[in-house]
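User: Can you predict the 3D structure of aspartate kinase? Sequence below.
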Amino acid sequence: GSGEALAQPSWWRDGERQRLLAIAAEATPRYVYHLPTVRAQARELKSLAAVDRLHYAVKANTHPAILRALAAEGYAFECVSPGELEAVSVAVPASVPLLFTPNFASREDFERGLATRATITLDALHPIEHWGELFRGREIVLRVDLGRGLGHHEKVRTGGSGSKFGLPLEQLDAFLRHADAHGVTVRGLHAHLGSGVLDAGHWGEVFGQLASLAERIGSIAFLNIGGGLGVPSHPGEAKLDIAALDAVLRQVKAAYPHYQLWMEPGRYLVADAGVLLARVTQTKGKGSWRYLGVDTGMNSLIRPALYDAWHEIANLTRLDEPATGLFQVVGPICESGDVLGSDRRLPEPQEGDVILIAQAGAYGKVMSSPYNLRGETEEVVLDA
Ligand code: LLP
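Assistant: Sure. Here are the predicted C-alpha cells for aspartate kinase:
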C-alpha cells in the first residue's frame, strides 16, 4: 500500500478495490463518489442534538446525485451563486430550504437570488445602502466578521484582517439603520471563520459571540455558525471530535435557547466519499528524484498546487505490494506546480497502473479547469 495510511477507515480500501479497478479499466481519469459514505457522514452530523438546521454547502461538490442524497437525509442547502441555486433547484424538492450567501455579488446576482425561495445573506454595507429597495419587506441574514479566521491554509480563512468576507462590526449600526430605513428585518446572524477546522471548541465561541450581538439587535431568530468542519488528511492527524462538538453546542444552546442554531458544512459530508482515479503514464528518474506520472493533475485536482493540501495516494493495482521508494506524483500539465503528492512511499509503479488519490470528494471536480485542454474529468457515482 501507500505506507502512509490514515487512522480512519476508508470505503475504497475495504472491499471496493475490484469495483474501482473495473471503473478505471473503462476510462481514466475519473472521479468516483460513494453515496453510502455521504449518507453516513450526513447522519453523523444529524446526531448533533443542538443543531436546528443543517445546510449542505453546495460549493464542495455539486453532483446532482449528491444533492439528491443529502436532500433525502433532510439537509437544506447553502448556495453562493445563481448557478448553484439553479443546480440545487433542479435536483431537490421545492420544499427544501435554501440559503443564498454570495460574496461581492452584483446587483443582478441578488435579483436572481431574490427570484428564488432562498433566504438571502448580506455581508457588506453596499447592497443595503445602494440597492436597499430590492430587499424591502424581506427578512435577511447578516454575515459578520468576528475579527478572526481559522482553517487548514491561509487561503481558506474567511475572517479577520485581510479577509474580504463579512461585515466589520464597527459598521453594524450603519447596516441596521439602512435596513430599518428600507423595511428590511435582520432575522439571522451568520459567521464562517474558515475551512478545514479540526478544533470542536470554536463553533461554540462563534455561537456565543453571535448570540451576544443578537441580544443587541433584537430581531434575531437564528444564528448560522457556518461550516468548516475538517477531515484529517495528514497521516496521524486526529479526527474532528463530534462528541465534543455536540457537548459544546448543547452547552451554548442551553445558555441561549431562544436562538435556533444553523450550520452549513461542505467538506465534512463529501470529502472522504470521493476518490480520483488516474493511470500511470510514465516514470522518470532525475538525479535523486523519482517521478511517477499520471494522466491527470492540477486540471482535475488543484488542492495540492493551491494549498499544499495532502491527499493520500495509493497504487490500487499494487495495494498489497511493499513500497520501494519515494515518488513525486505528477500530472501532465505544463506547470512545475502540477504535483498531486510529494515524497510518497509507493510500490514500484508500472505504466498502466491505477493510482487512487483519496479524499477528493470535496473541492475536487468543482475546482477543475480546462487548462491545457485536457478535457473534463468524468464522474461516476456508486449508490451502494
Ligand atoms: N459556509 C461558507 C460561508 C463558506 O464560505 C464555506 C466554504 C462553507 C460554508 C463550507 O466550508 P466547509 O465546511 O466545506 O469547510 N477550496 C477550499 C475550501 C474553500 C471553502 C470556501 N468556503 C479547499 O479545497 O480546501
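The chain has two domains: 17-32+271-382, 37-270. Residues 57, 59-60, 78, 101, 156, 158, 192, 195-196, 226-229, 264-268, 303, 307, 363 surround LLP (CB under 6 Å).
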